[in-house]
Design a protein that fits this description.
disordered N terminus; two-stranded antiparallel ribbon; single chain; mainly alpha; 33 helices
């Protein structure tokens, strides 16, 4: 009789012969000890993380400039859990940021260490999940090892803004383990309840758990559960949770302009095929890694690699589907690992919807899907009998682990700061226009405006329709005083995106600086129409109304700006100046006090309050204000001239001469003449 071939992936119920004694000490065969070794290796691989910094690419949005996490009171926490923030509802993630901000402020390494801690926990959970599925510690150890040290997972760990991926995966894995307990413990309902609770928390960390019902069905299949009405009914509870999140997203108003890359449906199929091959190949050849993988140029024929990759992807998936059809009762491990990868990677192939964001693939998208592939690697090893082939495969896996560990360790260094990671992207993808733009943004924050313009020029060169590059270059030119050139850039941004309210606002600023006040008011008004809660636009329009003697309109705009944003210090200062002009001195004084309460280092309110006190003959109060103004900005000539006036009234002639001399040294001819006329005798 013909001998029946064994499947290369054993069934979960298939017994294997006992392994021969290897002579290896028991401690080194203890799974818990080996798992501890994996965790220690992971810590070594990521040890450079403590030297890294925030990346001005979402880290600023989620942490550095996120006002919602800076109030750790009961009221602040309620706000976190009732707010739709930055296109998403992620209260669990924001809560962790808020706690860290409360404890550490903006010190980067506690956030990074917390990320690493979550990654270590996830590594343990991957081991528990795979062991629960395979009942093989070797399979689980290999899967958790490669999950822990794979180079494509570096991005999720060292990027503070990607905390949401780590938390989402943590609770997703816990929910999966809980469901396996439900399947293997006589369907006790408490485990189903725990599963529902945990996946809800996962969705509150990052709403990407829409694949979970499909995973539950895959687990039902793997554990040979009969699919019946009860099984389907169970999944309805989970679908209900997904529907609630979907409804919330539908009801909440999203920002007026979100950058999206639009391709035809046919093009998106080829982009999806390319992405599938990209993620598959990078799982075992993690080379040329980058934060940014730029998408191909829109509106033209895609590069040949996209068509070739799609054909190969279709062949692979079709073959897998055919294999599943023929062998769905056998080789459950092969089917489980492959389908786990396909289910979770399908969410980021962008075939159904338009490409969100500006990259066609991303390392962070593999954080959960790769568990399926690592499971297959572990199952392949566990299936082999002891002997030459098993030793060969173990040697191969250890070489891969060593190589991946080294690549990941070096990759952590590249994430040292924003400039480093974006220059790395440009070195690998010279046409990565987003990287040029982001370096320009970093230079803008450093006030290196000339250097920033050069990078924005390159971003526009490689993508002439990139709105943000035109807008950001306009900001740089505005800071350089190139107002007419800035207007050209803001106008181009508006042509590309007619709802870009900030481009209207900043074009208004440029026009105001060119004394085109009526045109500036038109732009401010348009910005307000596009975003009725834009407090800064109300404030700037109010100031322009003030300069054109439209005091009532100016007061209304300042009041509105403060109502919308009670912490807007410049609005209090401007309203104070308006009240001073209208002879409401007490009202002006109150507004200057409020401005300084919001920002004690704001120079203008000190100057204005000092001048008001001088006019009111409160010379000591005025002297105090001008002293602080000079401490804040010792280069401001007017502060010395103002303080000299106060010292004249106080009879401090020697101090008057010191102020005139200081102003003269800064280039004031008026102060030099005054010093020459009145201070020669004092000097002698």
């Amino acid at each position: 009789m013909k001998k029946k071939k064994r499947s290369p992936f054993q069934s979960i119920n298939e017994k294997k012969p006992a392994l021969k004694k290897t002579g290896v000490p028991a401690l080194f065969r203890n799974p818990n000890f080996l798992l501890l070794g994996i965790l220690l290796l992971t810590i070594v691989v990521f040890s450079n993380i403590i030297y890294n910094n925030f990346i001005y690419y979402d880290d600023d949005v989620y942490v550095l400039e996120n006002s919602i996490i800076k109030d750790f009171s009961v009221k602040g926490i309620i706000t976190i859990f009732t707010s739709f923030y930055y296109y998403g509802y992620i209260p669990i993630t924001l809560f962790t940021y808020a706690l860290e901000y409360f404890l550490w402020d903006n010190l980067p390494y506690p956030y990074l260490i917390t990320n690493l801690l979550f990654h270590l926990i996830n590594t343990i959970l991957v081991y528990r999940f795979i062991y629960a599925v395979s009942k093989k510690s070797g399979t689980a150890l290999i899967a958790s090892l490669f999950f822990a040290i794979h180079p494509l997972h570096v991005e999720s760990v060292v990027w503070i803004a990607e905390r949401k991926d780590l938390l989402y995966a943590l609770f997703y894995l816990l929910a999966s383990i809980s469901y396996i307990k439900y399947l293997t413990n006589n369907y006790k309902l408490r485990y189903l309840f725990y599963t529902l609770l945990l996946i809800t928390i996962s969705m509150l960390s990052k709403p990407a758990g829409v694949t979970f019902p499909a995973l539950l069905l895959l687990l039902d299949y793997y554990f040979k559960r009969e699919i019946n009405k009860k099984v389907i009914a169970e999944k309805l509870f989970f679908l209900f949770i997904m529907a609630l999140f979907g409804a919330y997203y539908f009801m909440v108003k999203t920002p007026t302009h979100i950058e999206k890359i639009e391709f035809t449906f046919l093009d998106r199929i080829f982009l999806g095929g390319y992405s599938f091959m990209f993620y598959t190949i990078k799982s075992f050849v993690p080379s040329k890694l980058s934060l940014l993988y730029p998408y191909p140029v829109q509106g033209v024929v895609l590069p040949a690699i996209y068509y070739i990759a799609t054909v190969i992807s279709i062949v692979i998936v079709s073959a897998l589907c055919f294999y599943v059809y023929k062998n769905y009762k056998k080789s459950r491990q092969l089917i489980f690992g492959s389908m786990f990868f396909l289910i979770h990677i399908s969410l980021v192939l962008h075939i159904v919807n338009s490409i969100g964001g500006v990259v066609v693939t991303a390392d962070r998208y593999t954080y959960l899907p790769y568990i399926g592939l690592f499971f297959l690697a572990g199952a392949s090893y566990s299936h082999l009998e002891s002997g030459f082939y098993k030793k060969m495969m173990l040697s191969f896996l250890l070489i891969c682990a060593f190589t991946f560990s080294y690549i990941s360790h070096e990759r952590v260094k590249v994430w040292r700061d924003g400039e480093s990671i974006f220059k790395d992207a440009i070195a690998k993808y010279p046409e990565a226009w987003l990287a040029y733009n982001n370096i320009g943004v970093i230079y803008n924050k450093k006030k290196m405006y000339q250097e920033a313009v050069v990078y924005f020029d390159n971003a526009i060169k490689y993508n002439p329709k990139y709105v943000k590059a035109h807008y950001n270059r306009g900001n740089s030119k505005l800071e350089l005083g190139l107002n007419s050139e800035a207007i050209i850039d803001f106008t181009r941004a508006i042509e590309l995106d007619g709802r870009h309210y900030m481009a209207y606002y900043n074009r208004g600023l440029a026009k105001h600086r060119m004394d085109l006040n009526q045109e500036a008011i038109i732009d401010y008004t348009k910005a307000i129409e596009l975003d009725t809660n834009y407090a800064e636009a109300y404030n700037s329009r109010g100031w322009t109304w003030f300069l054109t003697n439209e005091y009532e309109k100016a007061m209304a705009d300042f009041d509105r700006a403060i109502l919308l944003k009670p912490t807007l210090d410049i609005a209090y200062n401007n309203r104070g100046w308006l009240k001073f002009t209208m002879n409401d001195f007490q009202g002006a004084l109150n507004d200057y006090d409020m401005a300084l309460a919001q920002n004690p280092d704001f120079e203008l309110p000190y100057i204005n309050r000092g001048w008001l006190r001088y006019q009111s003959k409160d010379y000591l109060g005025a002297l105090t204000d001008f002293n602080v103004a000079i401490d804040i900005n010792p280069e401001n000539i007017k502060n010395y001239l103002n303080r000299a006036l106060v010292n004249i009234e106080l009879g401090n002639i020697e101090d008057v001469c010191k102020d005139w001399k200081a102003a003269a040294q800064l280039g004031s001819e008026e102060a030099q003449n005054l010093f020459n006329s009145y201070c020669q005798i004092v000097e002698q």
